[in-house]
Please model this.
Amino acid sequence: MISIEGLSKIFTSDKKKITAVDDLTLSINEGEIFGVIGYSGAGKSTFVRLLNRLEEPTGGRVVMGEKEITTLNSKALRLTRQDIGMIFQHFNLLWSRTVEDNIAFPLEIAGISKTKRKEKVQNLINLVGLSGREKAYPSQLSGGQKQRVGIARALANDPKVLLCDEATSALDPETTNSILDLLVDINEKLGLTIILITHEMHVIRKICNRVAVMESGKIVEQGDVLDVFSKPKQLVTKKFVEQVMGTNDEDDSMDYLLQTYEEGKIVRLHFVGEITNQALISQLAKQFEIEINILQGKIAQTQAGAYGTLIVQLEGNEEEINKATSFIQDETSVEMEGFGNG
Amino acid sequence: MGDFFSNLDTQDLIEATYETFYMTIVSLAGTLILGIMLGLLLYMTDKDGIWQNKYLNLITAAVVNVFRAIPFIILILLLFPFTNLLVGTLRGPTAALPALIIASAPFYGRLVEIALKEVDKGVIEAAKSMGAKTRTIIFKVLLPESMPALVSGLTVTAIALIGYTAMAGAIGAGGLGNYAYYFGFQRRDWDIVLVSTVLIVIIVFLFQFIGDYITKKLDKR
Model:
């Protein structure tokens, strides 16, 4: 477990004091993927650098497992950093070294023998899916491949924690997804705790178990990704949720839908963390003598299941429609709201 | 044609060319070591550097600036006592070495500093995040990552050095400059001046060519 207590960082420039991280307290469980989301300037990059003391904290404590990071002397800190992998937005590879030599670099730092290094590097290259590119230089790789090298390098010394600083922000959406899949894969395979900083809610939605929302150096909201998604409390959180779910303008168009589709009954279905009822629509269509017409909706997949809303029109005789709606309400965990016409 | 080159003595010419190479290469080696040390000191003690130290930085910068400001021909004269103490003579190519190194090391030091500043800060941060020692950061990150700029800077310095050797030659250091001045200019034997000049130009081109080639080979960006 990583516990962070009252962590703060104040930068002084031109006699002005800027509080980048403000009395931040947080605990992160072992083996989870924890996301920190915030707009640029929220202090999230500084926050992640305080965890391995690339920035020296002004106050507070960071404890990883048994070790109190914030009190280590410089030699102990250096050794501890070998247990904390880190990947970066701009990859930060050494352009003068090949893929394999880049991955070998942290092993050289740790004083691993040459034969052992070679074996380890090959395993890592296979793990991140870069076989055949061992002798390439970073300049010959695509962004996604560079980040794979970054990940392999970060994993070289078998760290227990991986810090990701905007690791996908410089990548296109498709490459982002493949890198996120890789992160989930290593999280499961190696049981590694991942702390991920991002400004993209999509990243949080796709891989995180828990999320903290950061604004002006403080955590303003935190919890399971699904809870934060379904019941965002703060305005910033709502804005981030809108990034993936679209703006909540359904209510405006509800009247329009009711006017346009006069037949049958219109219902709104809320999926919150659905795994078992993802096939609800086809279940309904098979079990009941009704027609289902999807009018509007948005479903997104999170680590804890599907989340989103569907507005559907149920057509058929009234009895069948009522049977179907009570089935939804009683037999499934999908929340339902009914509207007129019924 | 034969008449025009009548004053040339092949043996003297070879001797002078050899001396020019000797002075350039030995002083270049000295410049490389001293210049990298100066450049690293300037870079590391600078603001946000690993050894950040305002005073050490100011002192190093002052020394570098003073030595770069003194014209070479005057520097040689000022260094006479030092050279005499170190080499035991004021004549010949070896006697020119201290002045050559002291004149070009601060120049190269500044080029080294510029080269190091070009190294991506993110890469240094990454090395720190892996638990690298300062020594590792210097020898495995800073120097390899700035190598093309270090080599092209050394090429520029080498060419300036060839010019300096000719100047040193004029006050008795030997080499092609010495040959052209004493045997050519002062005796009005223009053929010697011409051939010496051509040879110096060829040596400059040679250094430029080798430097460019190595820079290009090293640069994997």
User: Anything to note?
Assistant: Chain B touches chain A at residues 120, 122-123, 125-133, 136, 140-141, 144-145, 147, 218, 220-221 (CB under 8 Å). The mean pLDDT of chain B is 93. Chain B has one domain: 10-218.
